[in-house]
Amino acid sequence: MQRKKVFISSVQSEFAAERQILFEYLTTDALLGKFFEPFIFENVPALSVLPTAVFLKEVENCDIYLGIFGQQYGYEDSEGISPTEHEFDAVTKGNKTCLVYVKQTEQRHPKEKLLIHKAENVIVRRSFNTSEQLKTAVYSSLVNYLIENEIIRITPFDATLNREASFEDLDEEKIRKFVGVAHRKRAFPFTEDSDIKDVLTHMNLIKGQYITNSAILLFGKKPQRFFITSEVRCAHFHGLDKVKPIPSYQVYKGDVFEMIEQAADFVLSKINLYVGDRSKNVTVDVEYEIPKQAVTEAIVNAVAHRDYTSNGSVQIMLFADRFEVSNPGNFPHELTIEQLYTTHRSMPANPLLAEALYLYGTIERMGTGTEEMTKLCLAKGLGKPEFISNYGFQTIIRRQYNAPITRQVTGQVTGQVTGQVTEKIMRLLNVINNQPLSVKEMLQHLSLSGRDNFLKEYLIPAIEQGFVTMKYHQNPNHPQQRYLLTVKGIELKYKTIK
């Protein structure tokens, strides 16, 4: 980034030593030198222009005015005004950041007293006695400038107030839905009828007129308007390598809950699925080749712990032999990779996001997610997940490469099949047997939670292609509406091969 220009102003003869000390300090300090570029008149080479023109131009171009006031007022022009006061007047008219430091002294020029009084009316000033005190005061002020302008951060990204967003950028319906779920699952001390601002205050997501970055990511109407790279990119490759054209590719946006849900559904729709029958139980057993909880946990970790200031995005890639999730996030230096396989301290990069995901039930007790993922994968015979920290963080879960891949449709069915018979449609047909099912029941059998996405990707295409029909044709919104296979759907189901 371009360094901020700091104009150092004072009576040169009175503060010659202090001016040079500050110039060298701001130039050489490891932190301040990275962000600030100081200017003092003494370092200007001889020019055939009036000194007044030089300093007024520098004042105009500066970002920060640093004034040092003391005993002397300095040279007075025909109007009886010193260069120091001219500089101060010019910078206050330009709405620049003003930092004024007043040296304590018993004697002071009357006009210098008036200048200090003028400064007191428009800015906050600090006092000093020695050069070391001046350096300390300047350091404190400039670091505070960096923090207030969010050039550097001392709080987590998700807890930082977003100066460009307001309460109106949040979706009230999303917040009320969250509160209802959190109240039922985690005994959250608010209900859906509670005042929204009280809820956000309790969750540390709002302060005065500003909301935090996490509030936007969790409940924003359009989170990507503020964080363009807040997205999950999903790709499915039939082989073992990245080969173009990519057979299936999706980019999911929205709030963090929506991105997690959509990305998990993408993966679950591509991996092998075992669907049982109702011979022993009314409920159909559904079992994925990679445990659903392990898939979701890997995605949740990537979304919750990523670096949202990075230009990178969360990436999910599914190959014939593995499932990979990558995110532009830094692994906590206090932890080791080996500790992830056991219960460990929770050290979220975005603690407010992690807390909200816990309250919503998206994650369980913090610090146990990767351990549980490991247990599930081992129980499934997939081996331990691989965690890699190298220019970001990556989770890899191995698939049983020799296992049968997804079913394929062969032959013709009654009539001509129109449209694409997707894996999602085939899974829906396998779930719907002789007993008609409601949307809620189908979601349960498929282990899905997103109703809108289910309708768009599963049910509506199956109905449009003539494989599924409604029990109550004349009343699509019937309270007892159920869905069953058509003759065409039954034929397609039994003409598939494993």
Please give a structural write-up.
- With 498 residues, this protein is α/β, with parallel strands linked by helices.
- It folds into four domains: 4-148, Toll/interleukin-1 receptor homology (TIR) domain (Rossmann fold), CATH 3.40.50.10140; 157-225, no CATH class; 232-398, 2-Layer Sandwich (Heat Shock Protein 90), CATH 3.30.565.60; 408-497, Winged helix-like DNA-binding domain superfamily/Winged helix DNA-binding domain (Arc Repressor Mutant, subunit A, Orthogonal Bundle).
- The chain has 17 helices and 20 strands.
- The strands form six sheets. A six-stranded mixed sheet has the order 10-9-13-14-16-15, with helices on one face. The protein has a five-stranded parallel sheet with strand order 2-1-3-4-5, with helices on both faces.
- Helix 1 (16-28) crosses helix 6, helix 11 packs antiparallel against helix 13 and helix 14 (423-431) crosses helix 16.
- The protein is elongated and about 100 Å long.
- The two termini are 58 Å apart.
